[in-house]
Amino acid sequence: MGGKNKGYNIKDSIEFLLKSFKPERYIYLSVTILSIMLLGYLIYTMILRQDISNILAMLGPSGLITFTFSRVLKMWTDCIDLIKTDITKK
User: Fold this and answer.
1) Which terminal residue of the chain has fewer beta carbons within 10 Å of its beta carbon, N or C?
2) Is the pTM higher than 0.90?
3) Nearest residue to 42 (alpha-carbon basis) of 62, 23, 24, 66
4) Torsion angle, alpha carbons of 72, 75, 76, 78, to 10
5) What are the UniProt keywords, alphabetically (predicted)?
6) Mutual orientation of helices 2-20 and 59-89 as an angle, nearest 10°?
7) Is 1 helix (H, G, I), strand (E, B) or coil?
8) Residues 10-41: pLDDT tens digits?
9) Are 69 and 43 spatial neighbours (Cβ–Cβ below 8 Å)?
């Protein structure tokens, strides 16, 4: 019985964390998608025009992609740490 109760609490913790970070996840996801689209457009124009000057313009979207991925990974690390502390308390 104790195992079922502990599993139920973990499930509730995960659902709570997913609901808590939902707006943040959508913001990061939308910024990432827009950055990937902009990066794709810049690569397309660079190939089409054979102009290397767009390489500097690619730093912005690639930096945003890196930032949003790092924030999402940090968010999930924080969630896992909260669940670990919840498990060790019981």
Assistant:
1) N
2) no
3) 62
4) 160
5) Membrane, Transmembrane, Transmembrane helix
6) 150
7) coil
8) 777 777 777 887 888 888 888 888 888 888 88
9) no
